[in-house]
Amino acid sequence: KIYNIMRKARMSLRKVLSVYLPTELDDAIGFVWRDSRNDVFKLSDQLCLFNKYWDSVFSHYFTEQTLCNLKYLGTKFDSVGGFSFVNDECMTILAIIEDFFSIVQKRKPNMSVPVETIRDSRSISMQLLLGARMTTISENNFMESCSDINLKVFEYNWIIINHLCGVVMDFYGVKHDFLYDKPPVIPSEAEFDRLMCNLYPSVQQLKQTMRKAVEIKENITPPGPKFYKKFHYMLKNFVPSLQIDVQPLDTTQFNARGLEDFCKKSENRERISIGYKQLEHFSSKLQEALSSMVYSKKTNLS
Predict the structure, then answer these.
(1) Cα–Cα distance between 262 and 269 in angstroms, integer?
(2) Least buried of 32, 222, 275, 278, by fewest C-beta within 10 Å?
(3) Mean local confidence (pLDDT), 46-52
(4) Is the Cα torsion angle 269, 271, 277, 280 positive or negative in sign?
């Protein structure tokens, strides 16, 4: 069932790009791009066009993260019209497509973009994976539980960061593509200043630490237990250190040894790399917000 879902997701992506790319390129640079040999109805060629005209056209509407994500999708094509994936990597692929569709829908509100369909596909896939995971847990409960809690900790922190970044960007008037539930009550400027003083350095520190877990190369000694104790401490205490009112995550099963095993598994490498790239994007946008905050205060003082 998941493979069928992935085939339909790839087909949906191709259909959206076959309409969106010509529209955007025609509006931006006229018809000169049509002289290229790329087939606008072939997904691999569509991604080539997106990459080819990134600097001149698409970089104005999408972030570098989107470009990286689409390049990643280009490495995941299989021979039967879907995507190749390992375990719950399909969730990452569907999330990338959903995020891309959401941006396109905002950019072209009159265009038919199946955001809800992809969102439903993610939900169904998650249920199918959970069903398969329960079978595995019955065979190896401890190892699977450890893997699950590590994933939950990463997702919990990244969801909180994404939400806070969206709130901060909107408050300081910084253009962004974060999708989040807007709070019913906007905090005061003093509260935002306090949040930025905690959030920005915490994200920077987490990014610098996580880089070591991502940049594991041959002939270089990989990070050991001491590093993962530090990484574990940062992930566990990241949200509490922000001093915000949010539902806490139960981390009683989260430990440094389990985190080390999780990060070193080959099937998790791509997921961790994408998470790090997202963290880089969070950091970059927070830097913009910080600059806007400082500029605003200088203007008010003058």
Answers:
(1) 9
(2) 32
(3) 91
(4) negative
C-beta separation of 285 from 174 below 8 A = yes
Residue 239 has pLDDT above 60, yes or no: yes
Residue 163: count of CB within 10 angstroms of its CB: 18
Question: CA angle 264-122-23, nearest 5°?
Answer: 105
Q: Tally Cβ neighbours within 10 Å of residue 52.
A: 16
**Segment 177-195 mean pLDDT:** 79
Q: Rounded to whole angstroms, how far apart are CA atoms 40 and 46?
A: 6
Q: Mention every residue, 6+ apart, whose C-beta is less than 8 A from residue 28.
A: 53, 56, 57
Give the whole-angstrom CA distance, residue 129 versus residue 87: 8
Taking each helix axis from N to C end, the angle separating 2-29 and 43-52, rounded to the nearest 10 degrees, works out to 40
What pLDDT band is residue 15 in, cutting at 50, 70 and 90? very high
More confident: 287 or 83: 287
